[in-house]
Amino acid sequence: MALINCPSCSERISSKATVCGHCQCVLAEMSAEQRLSMQKVSKIEQSQKLMNQSMIAMLLFCGGFGFMFWGEPEPTSWQNSIATGAAVLGFSWYILNRARIIWLKRK
Ligand SMILES: [Zn+2]
User: Fold this and answer.
1) Ligand 1 centroid – CA 20 distance (Å)
2) What whole-number distance in Å separates Cα of residue 81 and Cα of residue 101?
3) Distance from the CA of 30 to the center of ligand 1, in angstroms?
4) Which 3 state secondary structure label does DSSP give 4?
5) Ligand 1 center–CA 93 separation, angstroms
6) What is the pTM of this model?
């Protein structure tokens, strides 16, 4: 029994499985060609999702940073804490997404 990647959700499943246990995708009636094209589509979808997420992360970062810059909140106020939090979160999320996109492309 070998392990393969599910063409739909990319989880590791048995090559003899007829249905993916993760996404319920039916594999039995699929030809090798169909699996390959499905794998490609899901890869594109995944990277698109990650791109969208990094866009949101970027907006979060810009929003937080912009508010700190132009809103000039009091350094001890809760607005400042939220703006800093949003900027830090957005930045780390963005970096994480970029790393995941690179990793996805390497696979
Ligand atoms: Zn699956």
Assistant:
1) 5
2) 30
3) 13
4) strand
5) 26
6) 0.67
